Amino acid sequence: MRGSRQMTGNRQVGAFGAVTHFAGILVGLHDRLFGRIERIGTVWLTGLMARLVFASVLLTYYLNSAWGKLGKGPLGFLDLDAGAYVSIFPKTMEANGYDPSALAFFPYHVIVYFGTWSELLLPIMVVAGLFTRIAALGMIVFVIVQSYVDVSGFGLDAKSVGHPFDRLPDAIIWDQRLLWIFVLAVIAIGGAGKLSLDHLLARAWRRRS
Fold first, then answer.
1. For 102-111, what is each residue's pLDDT tens digit?
2. Contact 93, 153 (CB under 8 A)
3. CB–CB of 180/59 below 8 Å?
């Protein structure tokens, strides 16, 4: 009787050992496979894919928006359209008859020019991978300011603003803009990756040094 129990116990120990060994093989394969994917992704894919997503979703959106704020002619970036002021200071412009000349140079004109130029240049820098982390951080600030103006200046309604964890994925601010910021945060934290102007400039600088 005792021998039978011992044999049963030995079988159980043997089966447990086989399962443990098999599980160890699976864990090792998992670590090697996804470790390699992580190394490749960190260097090549993460920054590139985030920039491609940004380019697909937001590049033309912001370029069209910025282009519409420029004045006429080749020097339109130095003589902005009144719409540029309305987009940032809607209530102030309304109170001044939509006349940009009625606004003080500082801070209104300075902010509008800086905002418009940023809206035009920063998206291009992000996509090209040029000073990418700085450009991505600048775009994060831009999206936050844009969202603030939409809510406080243009009176975006509660449904469009949304609420975190509300099970509805279609709000402009808490859903759409939050995802924009997440993509930009990935770029700001991880960088542009090797397929970027930043990488080429860094390699050229190292060779020069």
1. 999 999 999 9
2. no
3. no
